Amino acid sequence: MISGAVRGDDRALQDKSGAPAWRHLPSWFVYLELDFNIPLAAHRFMAERAGAREQVEIPGDSHALPASQPAAVADVILQAVKAVA
Fold it and tell me: Which residue intervals define the domain AB hydrolase-1 in the entry (predicted)?
């Protein structure tokens, strides 16, 4: 269980994070079509609100996208790198 192995850091809840980077940096949004923790409509809304250059919806049903679909995530990262290089 992660909750038993990972200790919280109060700074994460107390420190201010500053201006959101997505307001001035290009962003890509990748998500699974069947993420049961965050509804698909919420993913799409957040991506649109952030002005994502690309939205990539990957078939699958895990919330741990980088662990369940590492190749697909790597492909999106490489596309983003090429787009801004």
Answer: 15-76
Measured over the CA atoms of residue 58, residue 49, residue 25 and residue 63, the dihedral's sign is negative
Is residue 63 exposed (0-12), middle (13-18) or buried (19+ Cβ within 10 Å)? middle
Q: How many CA atoms lie within 13 A of 14 on its CB side?
A: 4
- And the tokens for 56? 């990539």
| Residue whose C-alpha is closest to residue 66's, from 53, 54, 55, 77 | 77
Say which DSSP state 38 is in.
Answer: S
8 A C-beta contact, residue 54 and residue 27 = no
Euclidean distance between CA atoms 45 and 49, whole angstroms: 6
pTM greater than 0.85: no
At residue 5, the pLDDT reads 64
